[in-house]
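thought: user wants a sequence for this fold. calling inverse folding tool.
action: design(structure=
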């Protein structure tokens, strides 16, 4: 299921858009501001972002989101319809710029186009080879060292398959103290591991966050 994070400060419009997207089979997380967005965990497949957010430059927010991931889809949904606004949106890193009010069918068409662009299968995705003895990502020109907890997590995620691992299972595999709230610390570790995978040629979404559940592996790992 494609996950969407909707960033819109108008409560009525945010709720209406979210319900519509839910009815089309999308899982939607909501944020009314950049501050609320920062409190959400996990990387969605697509961000839908309004430019007129409180105490935030919408273009800077888009640049920040794009710096986190080159693979995530970014859709601007804004009342700003001047050519200079649209140009700045694309230059900041948006994939699609839609103006309000938007035809719902056009929004869905844009989302489906992003889904098709980001679709990966084992045949066209990079296969990461991991050396079990050295705990390294064995890629041409890049042997990237994994810590023992990182290696263990990748191994367990590969076994878990499509289901993935619940958040507490991930924390346990990584040797974290389950008696405390480990949400933020876990996010830091996952982000660090994603960077290592990306350096080895994997896409940003190689470890996918599943809202309310945990994480799963997307793409193929081969242990030798």
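)
observation: tool returned 224 residues.
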């Amino acid at each position: 299921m494609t996950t969407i994070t909707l960033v819109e400060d108008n409560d009525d419009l945010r709720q209406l858009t979210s319900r519509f997207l839910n009815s089309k089979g999308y899982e939607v997380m909501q944020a009314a501001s950049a501050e609320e967005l920062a409190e959400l965990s996990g990387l969605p497949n697509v961000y839908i972002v309004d430019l007129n957010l409180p105490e935030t430059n919408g273009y800077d927010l888009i640049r920040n989101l794009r710096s986190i991931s080159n693979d995530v889809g970014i859709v601007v949904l804004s009342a700003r319809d001047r050519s200079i606004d649209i140009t700045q949106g694309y230059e900041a890193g948006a994939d699609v710029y839609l103006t309000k009010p938007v035809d719902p069918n056009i929004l869905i068409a844009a989302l489906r186009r992003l889904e098709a662009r980001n679709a990966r299968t084992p045949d066209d995705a990079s296969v990461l080879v991991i050396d079990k003895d050295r705990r390294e990502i064995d890629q041409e020109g890049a042997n990237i060292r994994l810590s023992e907890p990182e290696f263990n997590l990748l191994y367990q995620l590969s076994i878990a398959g499509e289901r993935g691992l619940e958040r507490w299972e991930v924390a346990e595999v990584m040797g974290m103290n389950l008696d405390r709230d480990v949400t933020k610390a876990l996010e830091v570790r996952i982000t660090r591991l994603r960077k290592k995978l990306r350096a080895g040629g994997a896409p940003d979404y190689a470890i996918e966050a599943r809202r309310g559940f945990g994480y799963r592996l997307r793409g193929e790992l081969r242990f030798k």
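thought: summarizing for user.
answer: Here is the designed sequence. Helices lie at 11-23, 34-39, 58-68, 83-92, 104-118, 148-160, 167-173, 183-199.
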